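Dear colleagues,

I hope this message finds you well. In preparation for our joint manuscript, I am sending the BnaC01g21830D protein (Brassica napus) sequence together with its predicted structure, so that both groups work from identical material. I would be grateful if you could confirm receipt.
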Amino acid sequence: METASRVEAVTKGGLPVVPSQYIQPPEARPNLLHAGDAAPIPTIDLSNSDSVTESIGEACRNWGAFHVVNHGVPIHLLDRMKSLGLSFFQDCPLEEKLQYACDSTSAASEGYGSRMLLGAEGDVVLDWRDYFDHHTFPLSRRDPSHWPLHPPDYRQVVEEYGNEMKKLAQKLLGIISESLSLPCSSIEEAVGEIYQNITMSYYPPCPQPELTLGLQSHSDMGVITLLIQDDVGGLQLYKDDHWLTVPPISHAILVLIADQTEIITNGIYKSAQHRAVTNANRARLSVATFHDPSKTARIAPASHLIGQHTKPAYKEVVYGQYVSSWYSKGPEGKRNLDALLC
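The corresponding structure tokens are as follows:
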């Protein structure tokens, strides 16, 4: 964990230049003069039962990402999650934040932090981001005493939000399975018990956004990610050798296909490579809800998709080993997934 004074400086802004540990190598820096076209990813109405399966299948094949509306998650809950996140990052004193500090030596540990990847100080370029990670499923992992006490409804809202997001993730995994002519339960059965983490990410204004990334290029390591964001914008998707900006859509939920789903679908559906850029004027907040297998789960292409003329595109992997590689080596786009290609 960085020193308290440095975390405070980044959280509150006001630095004239970016500290050296946040400066990306030239090849990774965003070209903010040509920020890229808006990514025309589909927006899918989940209440339209006539076309939703076909639309989601097409989006998974072409983009690995799509927005959903009429998704069934209460709008007031989406708004409250974002306001709770802003309250914690902007209003909570640093001393109180540090009471919830995560273990920076352990991958994806619960709590408040700003260093995602493992490795010695100086070995890893840091993202211009603070975050709070909540472990919410299975229920045996859920301990609200690890979460902020204030505002008074913080813990209740996070629990309710996690429950709603898990229901939506399971519904989407069923539709994704059916879009491949698989039984509705196929992907969820391949995954096993779902492990859910909710990560609030706060990107402070950055004095030199052209040198930094809020979140480096990667695809999510798990199964499916559900993301909400404020109106600031900064999320980009990589497609056809170009970075495209994903404009926020009010009260829509962005669905990102993750690496294990690419494996299970034998590469028919691609995980979404994405990153976050920063800006000099406005803080940005997003809330990502990750749905992953257990660390002991063995993930491989679905047997229904393998046949006489179709060979497995990916080797079987134990998910815990995949996670360890992701955090220790770094994502660098999709290199950990590419390492499993047959």
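For the figure legend, we might mention the following. The domain at 7-12+32-114+123-339 is CATH 2.60.120.330 (Jelly Rolls). The radius of gyration is 19 Å.

With kind regards,
E.M.
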